[in-house]
Specification:
single chain, 7-stranded mixed sheet, 6-stranded mixed sheet, 10 helices, globular, binds adenosine-5'-diphosphate, binds magnesium ion
């Protein structure tokens, strides 16, 4: 048997292969309404209610670096990124199962700090931490979190429901998490240089990070937009499709378009970007719009709405309408600030196994 490296097909190609192998198992569970392919699996609980469930892995050296990540923030983010996937179904979180693998030499205090951060965040989102598993690790810390949530059947949003003419909307601001990561990595390298030369690394050497505070917060301590789900439910809004932005606007919009069989046309000038993110991009001689399109980890919601719902969201201070859904043959276009159309499918988001 010839063996193909995973990097040949990438993360999404690999998930497609896994999906084809496990598909027969889904047929044995008729109440499973949606298996692989959305932000959560969907299971019918009763005639009016769906349960949604999601899981995410966080690996040291892949997803986080203990040199730049406070432990409480790490615990918080591990839970938040899952709750964000629950929100992407227009659902509310109920409870979490948390598994952790640690080297034997890791301290008890490290674990306690991670769980304190996670508990605080769990309280914030009315989510119980109801169990999990613990194991030794041959190297590095791994955290795996699974969250279950609920949604009334008539309120569920999948990736697949967008139709031509729908508005394309995002919450919050984009690109901040990628900008924050740039600053943290720069600071880490300065610190390592000092340590290498036996010099002190203290407040005198450290940059004044205050001016980067919001972008760093977005990287280390993102929020899940449960507040937006509450707003939707209170106002009878059901997005025609929704996803959370974990890989970058370009890639996550492409997921919605692929699942819905449509195209999209968005405008650069409408993409919400913090001025701090723009400053950081300038400092690194990069483009803030690229942070938004392919930086990822913003955990904002990207959703589509019927055009007649315009007034229901237009006045919300934290929702931006960035474009509209088009027929599939029009592709995925971004009109830049000079009026040029760019094919977004050529911009890739984060993809594990890229070499
Ligand atoms: P998200 O970014 O929203 O967490 P992913 O890109 O990780 O979503 O996953 C996309 C879909 O593939 C989801 O439905 C997820 O459950 C499924 N998936 C990812 N990895 C695996 C795996 N190893 N086995 C089965 N399903 C998987
Ligand atoms: Mg998601």
């Amino acid at each position: 048997m010839s063996c193909k490296p995973i990097s040949d097909i990438g993360e999404f190609g690999l998930i497609e292969r896994i999906a084809s192998i496990v598909a027969p198992t889904c047929e044995t569970t008729p109440k499973l309404v949606k298996g692989i392919g959305d932000d959560c699996a969907v299971y019918e609980l009763s005639s009016s209610l769906f349960q949604v469930a999601t899981t995410d892995l966080l690996l040291e050296h892949v997803h986080f670096d203990l040199l730049t990540t406070p432990l409480q923030h790490l615990g918080s983010k591990a839970l938040t990124v899952n709750i964000s996937d629950i929100c992407a179904m227009n659902a509310k979180p109920c409870y979490a199962l948390v598994s952790i693998a640690l080297p034997a030499k890791a301290s008890v205090e490290l674990v306690e700090a991670v769980y304190r951060g996670m508990s605080e965040t769990a309280r914030l989102y009315n989510t119980a931490i109801a169990g999990g598993d613990t194991s030794a690790s041959p190297g590095g810390v791994t955290i795996s979190v699974t969250v279950a949530g609920e949604v009334e059947k008539e309120n569920i949003s999948y990736r697949k429901g967008a139709r031509p003419g729908d508005l394309v909307c995002v919450t919050g601001t984009l690109g901040g998490a990628a900008a924050g990561l740039k600053v943290l990595m720069r600071e880490k390298n300065v610190m390592l240089e000092h340590v290498k030369h036996g010099e002190n690394y203290d407040k005198d050497v450290m940059s004044n990070l205050e001016e980067y505070n919001e972008a760093i917060r977005q990287q280390l301590l993102p929020s899940a937009r449960v507040d937006i789900i509450d707003f939707f439910h209170k106002n009878g809004i059901v997005p025609t499709s929704m996803i959370d932005i974990s890989d970058g606007l370009a890639s996550d919009l492409a997921h919605i378009c692929k699942r819905s069989g449509v195209g999209a046309h968005i405008e650069e000038s409408r993409i919400p970007i913090l001025s701090q993110t723009r400053h950081i991009a300038d400092e690194f001689q990069e483009d803030a719009v690229n942070f938004a399109l392919s930086g990822g980890e913003d955990y904002q919601l990207l959703f589509t709405l019927k055009a007649e719902k315009f007034s229901a969201v237009a006045s919300h201070p934290d929702i931006s309408i960035i474009g509209k859904i088009t027929p599939a043959d029009e592709g995925l276009l971004l009109t830049d600030i000079y009026g040029m159309n760019i094919d977004i499918q050529k911009i890739s988001g984060f993809n594990h196994f890229q070499v």
